[in-house]
Automatic annotation (TrEMBL):
Pfam families (UniProt xref): Arg_tRNA_synt_N, DALR_1, tRNA-synt_1d
NCBIfam families referenced in this protein's UniProt entry, alphabetically: argS
Residue ranges of every copy of the DALR anticodon binding domain listed in the record: 477-592
EC numbers on record: 6.1.1.19
InterPro entries hit by this protein: aa-tRNA-synth_I_CS (IPR001412), Arg-tRNA-ligase (IPR001278), Arg-tRNA-synth_N (IPR005148), Arg-tRNA-synth_N_sf (IPR036695), ArgRS_core (IPR035684), DALR_anticod-bd (IPR008909), Rossmann-like_a/b/a_fold (IPR014729), tRNAsynth_Ia_anticodon-bd (IPR009080)
Keyword terms: Aminoacyl-tRNA synthetase, ATP-binding, Cytoplasm, Ligase, Nucleotide-binding, Protein biosynthesis
Protein name (database record): Arginine--tRNA ligase
Coiled-coil regions, chain positions: none
Lineage: Bacteria, Pseudomonadati, Bacteroidota, Flavobacteriia, Flavobacteriales
Amino acid sequence: MTLHQTLTQHIQKAVEELFPISIEKVEFQATRKDFEGDITVVVFPLVKALKGNPVEIGNQIGNYLVANVNEVAKFNVVGGFLNIVISDAFYVEFFNTIKNNETFGFVAPKEGEKAVMVEYSSPNTNKPLHLGHIRNNLLGYSVAEILKASGKKVYKTQIINDRGIHICKSMLAWQKFGNGQTPASTGLKGDKLVGNFYVEFDKQYKKEISELIAQGKTEDEAKKLAPSILEAQQMLLDWENGKPEVIELWKTMNQWVYDGFAETYKNLGVDFDSYYYESKTYLLGKEVVQFGLEKGIFEKDPDGSVWIDLTADGLDRKIVLRSDGTAVYMTQDIGTAIQRVKDFSDVGGMVYTVGNEQDYHFKVLFLILKKLGFDWADSLYHLSYGMVELPSGKMKSREGTVVDADDLMAEMTTTAQTISEELGKLDGYSEEEKAVLFKTIGLGALKYYMLKVDPKKQMMFNPEESVDFAGNTGPFIQYTYARIQSILRKADFDTSISISGLELHEKEKELIKQVQLFPDVIQNAADNHSPALIANYTYDLVKEFNSFYQQVSILGEENHDKKVFRVQLSKSVGNTIKNAFQLLGIQVPERM
């Protein structure tokens, strides 16, 4: 039972005996630094029910707690706030119960509880992954890991956008300008090779537009009449009609891209349990449209198109089937969601990691699924996130000005190497060990910088700022973890024994309190789908440890019990850092 739960029960009992009246909820907050106390009860919400002065109510409850609760040492009341001082014995006893628990804070899934499916990445097969995909992947992967740690069964998935005019543009450009190039013949990753031809198509297309405008066409006319776009549209028709040579080229070039993506995912440290492909799902949902028509949820217009009217819900009319019977993205997403529940019968909710430009789309999708009567539609969540930019500005895939994910990861590793070598802390490392360390620091810097920002916020990514060994950065936290491992290696005595009866130093107490928060932080991060809560908690924990490290002697402590306890406390902090970073997909080095 947590301290909050214990105190809640005792305060509820105190109110029943003192006033007498029953209360359901007790509001806690951290005690302000300028007051004595470990935890504060907000008395104001009780005033209306108890009909009294908040200071008097606080004093009565405080006196009751001191007299009846072993954990409460003393108290003070400031205005409507009851500041409670918890006994050292409570913190020591709590620490002894968790010090050997390497997964403290993690909750195992409950038997029979519905699973959550988290979708992320969802790239197009006409270009490599870029900086925006990195934020998407890191958010989706981290939220999946946090949900798992909070006690949920989780499936990670993605839908690959492998069909459409944009895919045909790369294919057409390869036919025209590729001269039979392959990833093997060029030494390029397949996704990069295909992406180059997507850029090449755009150059040719723009050239044709300019020529047509020079011949007297308007810009709109030129865009529609350019030979390249007409050929790409014909290729899409050929694909939809199953023309063998088009399908064969499509399969070949897509496989190049899949192989390239797999390499990037491995380097980034993300994975998936299942894959869905738009080429297989784009017709899903058509049956559901017929069902919706029969139930009166959808309506057919005179031209044969099918719509849903959501104006009564504050939205608008949304098309779900074109007049020619072809599906739109909404139809596909409806069908895919239903298919996923069929494929994974224990799925009871889904998280979609998609940029905030699709906020409206997901409002409509979730509402349609609710109106269609799917009970799991109440457990759908759009993990909406802001765009990520560099100091140099926005990126454009067609023009080849995106920041390539592989290049960025390589750059982060190089930056980590440069800074590490300047700091001169690499004595005794082999070249192989250095390479692993530089990658660990570089990727840690990248991931932490991306994830410490609230997902909903647009962010500016500054590579050099992220690889800083001071401040709220991944390397700073990794360095603290490595420092703790150094302490543990130097501790040449038995640290497995349990120590009790200690009078705690203020810094020891503060550190235990910070560790104690970890389970609640995980649950809160899961409820809010926010890795930023884990990241910033970890930074606070590290700051608290460094303050402890600077003010309290650990290995130099003369009292044996205190020395053992402080080493154990350091170990527990290190384990918490490691587990928190695991939820962010970040590795921690044993030495740095």
